[in-house]
């Protein structure tokens, strides 16, 4: 049975869920991200006064990489992840999903949306260098990690838009996208036509991240079912986060993001959070791994 988002402020434990898959990406090494942070994460959160428990790491049933049945494989993993997230919400637990590539968001937020359906739509703050709003028709690469936000908005491959149930998972009026600086015109047209609010890096540089984050929170917090935060680590400038799947120069400074995420900490409407695209093989001196721990501590 769905629980009101405000019940989650009393959760004794944050449920940590790994989603170790790179089925949606061309670089097949982000699936090592969850195990890279697992050992240190519970202790780090405990040091911050947060009780957290690693519930397990979900993996694809078969590791064949990007193939003709990649949609079916991502849908199968997303369905299991959606169920895991929905179960935690039904137990009054906040959650943190540590993903491989960002296609994990299809499962994470489908699960949250289904769990909260009786209360109404959920909101989402999407922090990413990319819009991740391609459909199979518009994508040049066919990479599914470029499609999850479109899927959650009901646009795309039916097996992905139908994860959890057949309904549209997100209403555009409760979604805010932050930090984008690399995207195709088709993605921009889709989000614009749906009415999604986008704060690109130009807006962040002009208005400041604090103001933009407050605006994003005001959008997501209006959702009656609570809201979540999904972070692709490539939103952060590669100087601060080199270990990501698809680095893009000119991103959000790490410290500025950490400072602003504290605005959501202890928010009773925050259902859970997600971090994706940590690629330990591109990291330098564990810089991005440590930042992942910092980000989770800042939000939870």
Features:
36% helix; 10 helices; 8-stranded parallel β-sheet; Arginase, Chain A; 300 residues; globular; single chain; alpha/beta
> What is the strand content?
15-25%
Write the CATH homologous superfamily.
Answer: Ureohydrolase domain
Q: Could you tell me how far the N terminus lies from the C terminus, measured between alpha carbons in angstroms? A: 24 Å
Report the mean per-residue pLDDT as an integer: 91
**Structural class by helix and strand composition:** alpha/beta
What can you tell me about this protein's structure?
This protein is 36% helix and 18% strand. The chain has 300 residues and is an alpha/beta fold. It has one domain (5-299): Arginase, Chain A, CATH 3.40.800.10. Strands 2-1-3-8-7-4-5-6 form an 8-stranded parallel β-sheet, with helices on both faces. Strand 1, helix 1 (33-47) and strand 2 form a beta-alpha-beta unit. Helix 2 (70-90) runs parallel beside helix 3, helix 7 crosses helix 8 and helix 8 (209-220) crosses helix 9.
